[in-house]
Each structure stands twice: as structure tokens, then as C-alpha cells.
Amino acid sequence: MSVVHVDSAAARLRFGALDMACTLGRGGSCPAAEKREGDGCTPIGTWPLRGVLLRPGKADPDGIRLPWRWTRAQDGWSDDPADPAYNRPVRLPRSFSAETLRRQDDAYDIIVVLGHNDAPPVPGNGSAIFLHLSEGRPTAGCIALERADMLRLLPLLTPGDVMEIA
């Protein structure tokens, strides 16, 4: 097991010899126990890397060692605390609120799903905490990297690795 270190105060992600700038949530970082849906906080803690979601035509799976799959047009992620599938992948359209995983920007071309609030999910304690591509602005609580940095990091990650946000 290897650890991807995120220094939230310095907005830096470090893994082995890699040291790169990252973007965090618009609400800064907060202890995971205080994380709430919609607060924009990046949760402090250690989170397993669950797998990778790739947008067809926008990302290449060559060299990826984590479990991965292509996203489909109807893929979403529930962010509605009233949804029985809260903080889980879902199929769109849906009667509950959910993020679309096929966004108009490039942020979700590559998504590394972090195991925050997923074993089991507690409604309202935060959903869809990902490592994804930078949008040039703070995230809604995720960690984001520039595409070139993500492409340097992604092939180095292996099953069992974790992200430690401090």
C-alpha cells in the first residue's frame, strides 16, 4: 500500500517523487466528522482509492492499474441524502438529485473515486468525493489536478493505495 499525501494548507499533492499543485474545495478542508453535503469542504482523513472512471474519447486507460471503467451518458452519482442510493453511482435520469458524470467541462474526463463516506454511506455526510481534473477554480469538495499531472500520477497508483488528506 502506498499513500498519496495531500497537504490541504499548501494545496500540494505528493506521491513518491511527484510533488504537484492541487485544487481543493471552495470551503477549504474540514475534519471528516464535520463534512456535510454541499458545504464545499474537502474531508480530512485517509481514503481508499476505489477505482477510476474514464470518459471515452477523452482519456486513455493504457497503464492504469486501478480498477477502471468507461462512463456512459446516463451515469450519475447520487448527492441527495434522501436517496437510498446516496453517495453511490446511479443511472440518470433519476427522481433524486444526482451529479452527472458526463459534464460539459473536462473535469470528469478522469475520476478517481475516493472511499469517503461509503462503507456504509451516512446520508448528508458528503458524497462524490473524487480526485478529478482541474476546472481552474475550487472544487465542491474534491481534489483536482491539471491533466498533465493526473496523467503522470495515474499509472503509478495500484489497488490498495490510499489518499491521506491533512
UniProtKB/TrEMBL annotation:
Domain L,D-TPase catalytic: 2-166
Name of the protein: L,D-TPase catalytic domain-containing protein
Keywords: Cell shape, Cell wall biogenesis/degradation, Peptidoglycan synthesis
Pfam families linked: YkuD
GO molecular function per UniProt: transferase activity
Upper lineage: Bacteria, Pseudomonadati, Pseudomonadota, Alphaproteobacteria, Sphingomonadales
Catalytic center residues: 132, 142
Superkingdom per UniProt: Bacteria
InterPro entries: LD_TPept_cat_dom
Coiled coil: none
Biological pathway: Cell wall biogenesis; peptidoglycan biosynthesis
GO BP, sorted A to Z: cell wall organization; peptidoglycan biosynthetic process; regulation of cell shape
